[in-house]
Design brief:
596 residues; alpha/beta; Rossmann fold; 9% strand; elongated; nucleotide-binding
């Protein structure tokens, strides 16, 4: 891809961004997906008609040969050879035309498959934190992987089976009508019977597919959660409990899958019986016409061949309909993401040239979407640029929510936040967040090297800068102990490292960004004394001269904070330096006494 060329998926994102804010009809969504690929689909269909022509021509050639053989006095063997040559050519051309048909179809379907997955990932990046907190990650994985695969299968089946079957029916009825209108009318009767049959089973199949798809998503979410919980499960000897939970979910999935299979089998068997009876009636009808001398014996074979083609085509549609229903359900599933309106909380466009770090909360009230209880209540707080503020209080007091608000993850229900005097509503959040660094309690690392985790999202970091950051983060001893130094692979979630080592890598990741605002959420609470000491040394270097928010339960770690904010029920009840608050003997003093 050229440097100035936009990714192909960008067009997909624009399509759905400009679309309606609700789940649209599945096939309208499919149309939007394939917009821009219709030339490939048209060429694929053209070569399909050519490659599929033997199905329509062979019955005619067969009828000709039978009529020639039954009337040798009126025909010569040369006519037999001519018919053979024609049918041989028609059959052989299937190879190149099939390759061209699949080539153009694959170009369209693979483009849509890759583009749709990319668009889903892009959309997930732009959806609100509230949206992600409400859905298990396993469910979202199921949408990106399983549902997109089902949609690709649906689109291929529409082009392979549905369009092929529909074309075969139209051609067979057209050729038959040109020779005998009465027989053609008999053929036409099959179509309303097929429509009635599909309509009779449609609602039941859609319901069973919907239940099965939701159960698959539930299972996917539970499996992802179970895998994450394995260390905790193993530590508490709860393996059997997790196995029982999984078995229960799988039992429900098995039951719904069984019901779906039975419904599909009943639908397929009913269709086969109905159309086999139709075929026998067709044979009887055309044989009766030949018996009366109205058509030739060759025509009987030709009509039977065409009727067989029609029945095979309709049976093909009936057999593939359950898969179409699954694809339809998958389109509904991904549409829940594509058309979701729960986008990021702030849509401001103002890019701040520089961030000094002054943060202001003005009469902020906030509650989560699934609750009416306020987490923050009329919070007023002003943090000066470069000031280090510690937030303390009991669990549920609103400390971590304050950090999430500073990050712009949540928007106040009432009141407003400002950065350097600019309302958050006006600020371009992505550019603002590039000036922030977060060191959470549970460090998030990915399965790359130590260097990759430190320089995550950054390019062209010099070795000098990297070494400077390593020293500031007190990380040199960790790297020296690693077999491949900075290039050591740390395993998924940094599983090969201790808690203190992971925290120092997270701090190095924060330092290298040279942020103006630092958010520390219980960064040392899970560490032993030695690890805590080293991490605290790194933190002191990190926060120097930067606006810093520290959430801490261990009050001894915030002695050097410029100001300590004591929170209760989502509001500030006391603030001051460590010494001031201890001398006041208020809420902070009570908390400190509990830890004494």
């Amino acid at each position: 891809m050229k440097a100035n060329q936009k990714p192909q998926s960008f067009d997909f994102e624009q399509r759905f961004r400009n679309g309606p804010g609700k789940v649209e009809g599945a096939f309208k969504t499919l149309y939007m997906l394939y917009k821009g690929q219709f030339h490939n689909i048209a060429l694929s269909f053209f070569f399909f008609l050519i490659k599929h022509s033997p199905v329509w021509i062979i019955p005619i050639i067969t009828a000709n040969m039978i009529d020639i053989a039954s009337n040798p006095k009126e025909h010569s063997t040369t006519e037999l050879w001519i018919n053979l040559a024609i049918v041989a050519f028609i059959i052989i051309q299937n190879i190149p035309s099939q390759l061209l048909h699949i080539s153009f179809l694959s170009k369209a379907s693979r483009h849509v498959e890759a583009g749709l997955r990319s668009t889903l990932v892009r959309k997930l990046q732009h959806l609100s934190i509230s949206y992600h907190s409400e859905l298990r990650s396993g469910k979202l994985q199921s949408k990106v992987l399983r549902d997109v695969e089902s949609i690709e299968f649906l689109s291929k089946q529409i082009m392979y089976s549905f369009s092929a079957a529909l074309t075969s029916v139209v051609v067979a009825i057209g050729v038959t009508a040109s020779k005998n209108l009465l027989v053609a009318l008999f053929f036409v009767l099959v179509i309303p019977v097929a429509i009635l049959l599909v309509y009779s089973f449609k609602r039941n199949l859609q319901k069973k597919n919907n239940e099965f798809r939701k159960q698959i998503e539930t299972m996917s979410g539970q499996v992802a959660e179970t895998l994450t919980m394995i260390p905790v499960t193993r530590a508490h000897g709860l393996e059997d409990l997790e196995i029982k939970k999984t078995d229960h979910t799988l039992s429900n999935l098995k039951g719904k899958g069984y019901k779906l299979d039975i419904s599909e089998a009943y639908f397929g068997a009913t269709g086969w019986v109905v159309f086999q009876l139709f075929q026998m009636f067709c044979l009887m009808f055309t044989a009766f016409l030949a018996y009366q001398g109205q058509i030739t014996v060759g025509d009987v074979v030709m009509y039977q061949g065409f009727f067989t083609t029609i029945l095979m085509s309709i049976n093909q549609i009936i057999n593939v309909y359950p898969q179409l229903a699954k694809g339809y359900e998958s389109i509904i599933s991904v549409s829940e993401v594509l058309f979701s309106t729960q986008t990021v909380e702030y849509q401001g466009k103002k890019k701040l040239a520089e961030v000094n770090g002054k943060i202001t909360f003005e009469h902020v009230n906030f509650h989560y979407t699934d609750s009416t209880k306020h987490v923050l209540n009329d919070l007023n707080l002003e943090v000066a640029a470069g000031e280090c503020v510690a937030l303390v209080g009991a669990s549920g007091a609103g400390k971590s929510t304050v950090l999430s608000m500073v990050l712009g993850f949540y928007r106040p229900n009432e009141g407003r936040l400002l950065i350097d005097g600019v309302p958050f509503d006006d600020v371009h959040m992505q550019s603002y967040r590039r000036k922030l660094a977060v060191v959470p309690q549970n460090t998030i690392l990915f399965s790359g090297s130590i260097k990759d985790n430190i320089t995550y999202g950054m390019q062209d970091v010099s070795e000098e800068r990297l070494q400077e950051v390593i020293e500031m983060a007190n990380l040199q001893d960790v790297i020296d102990d690693m077999p491949e130094g900075l290039d050591t692979m740390i395993g998924e979630h940094g599983g090969k490292l201790s808690g203190g080592q992971r925290q120092r890598i997270a701090i190095a990741r924060a330092i290298i960004r040279d942020p103006q605002i630092i958010l520390l959420d219980e960064a040392t609470s899970a560490l032993d004394n030695v690890s805590e000491y080293r991490v605290q040394q790194a933190i002191q270097k990190l926060i120097k001269g930067r606006t810093t928010f520290i959430v801490a339960h261990r009050l001894s770690t915030i002695r050097d904070a410029d100001r300590i904010i004591v929170m209760q029920n989502g509001t500030c009840v006391e603030q001051g330096s460590f010494e001031e608050l201890m001398n006041n003997k208020g809420e902070f003093y009570k908390l400190k006494q509990l830890q004494a």
